[in-house]
Amino acid sequence: MPCKEEDNVQETFPLRLYPWQKARGPSDLSQNRLSVTLAGLKLASPTMLASGILGYSAETFESIAEGGAGAIVTKSIGLKPRSGYVNPTVVQVSCGLVNAMGLPNPGMDEFAHEIRRAKTVLRVPLIASIYGYSEEEYAQLAKKAVMAGADAVELNVSCPHVKQTGSEIGQSSELLAATVKKVKTIVDKPVIVKLSPNVTSIADLAEVAAKAGADALTAINTVKAMVINAETGMPMLSNRVGGLSGPAVKPIALRCVYDIFEQVKIPVIGCGGITSWRDAVEFLLAGASAVQIGTAIAMKGPNVFSSITRGVSVYLRKNGFKDVNEIVGLSHHRQ
Ligand code: DHB
Fold first, then answer.
1. What are 270-322's pLDDT values in tens digits?
2. How far apart are CA 136 and CA 143, in angstroms?
3. Listed residue (13, 14, 68) closest to 43, CA to CA
4. Closest residue (by CA) to atom 10 of ligand 1?
5. How far apart are CA 82 and CA 61, in angstroms?
6. Measured between alpha carbons, how far is residue 21 from residues 15, 16, 175, 306, 315 in Å?
């Protein structure tokens, strides 16, 4: 079955003016109907750039913010440079992408320059995504990122396929708790934990992270997946397995957010297959305080942030809500 194109409210904005800065009268975005405060971070729009997409340079962060994102999450950065896997690293499937890049990144010492540069131009919060091979490494990375100017860190404890990091940490209550606790002792900026859907109970692990001191949670990272070529009989990705993202995972992500919201009190950021304002609204109703957008940028370009934001604004107005925060978790009271 083909993927359904959702009814986005399209709107273009003048270059170098963030969408919510354009005055449009009393019912406008600038009236802050859409602003959220999340773990102490102030976002003018509840949409964020998800880690892993265009997350490497100050220039791309700036163009994503101009496209309407309320915050930017960088590509995941480790202590040492990593070249990642050889091609093919991304395969398109029905309603999504399966990727196994292998966490390519320049290493934190190099990337810290980019964080510093970005902070001179960006007017939205910059969140550094980090991955390590031990709790000490996560703590060291968090410290370096915050010292360079990052407004928060997102712990990638959920990459589905790189050995000894990612989900190998996020799938273990003990390792997850130790990692979050260690990072919290080192930095005084918000610590966001990006959770894996590849577990028996994501809500139980969310609770572990919250009890260890996490300030917010991102749900979800990609779903472990693979693609096989019928002609050659071979797996398509060089790493054989990767992570599925895009509309194919949206119902899984929505269920995860819903489950976490029932069990845990800290804010949840929804992530997984959000391509339209309607998807964003569904995540907010399930309990997300904001949403991250990744794969949809590849499909629709960076203005997807402003079209989603405007659509959410119209939805709120039409349904008599004054503020986006009024609909967070509303579906839990509707049965
Ligand atoms: C990669 C990292 C992730 O966290 C993920 O979910 C998928 C892919 C990567 O760099 O390969």
1. 999 999 999 999 999 999 999 999 999 988 889 999 999 999 999 999 999 99
2. 11
3. 68
4. 103
5. 21
6. 12, 10, 43, 12, 19
Of 240, 241, 248, nearest to 220 by C-alpha is: 248
Q: Is 256 a catalytic residue?
A: no
What is the number of the ligand 1 atom nearest to the C-alpha of 131? 4
**pLDDT for position 51:** 97
- Per-residue DSSP letter, 157: -
* pTM assigned to the model: 0.92
Determine which residue's CA is closest to atom 8 belonging to ligand 1: 100
Binding pocket residue ranges, ligand 1, CB within 6 Å: 52, 76, 99-103, 156, 159-160, 221-222, 243
Q: What is the pLDDT of residue 20?
A: 38
165 CA from centroid of ligand 1 (Å): 11
Q: Which residue numbers in the chain have pLDDT < 70?
A: 1-2, 4-31, 335
Which of 148, 151, 166 lies closest to 78 in space, CA to CA?
166
**Beta bridge partners of residue 291, listed in sequence order:** 47, 270
Half-sphere exposure for 76 (CA within 13 Å, toward CB): 26
pLDDT score recorded for residue 136: 98
Half-sphere exposure in the Cβ direction for 85 (13 Å, CA): 19
Cα-Cα-Cα-Cα dihedral sign, residues 289, 293, 296, 297: positive
CA of 162 to the centre of ligand 1 (A): 8
Q: Which two tokens stand for residue 226?
A: 């693979």
Nearest Cα residue to atom 4 of ligand 1:
159
Would you say 272 and 220 are in contact if contact means Cβ atoms under 8 Å apart?
yes
Both structure tokens of 31: 């009236």
Q: Ligand 1 pocket test: which of 192, 222, 237, 292 has the largest number of ligand atoms within 8 Å of its C-beta?
A: 222
Phi and psi at residue 265, to the nearest 5°: -90, -20
Residue 227 DSSP code: -
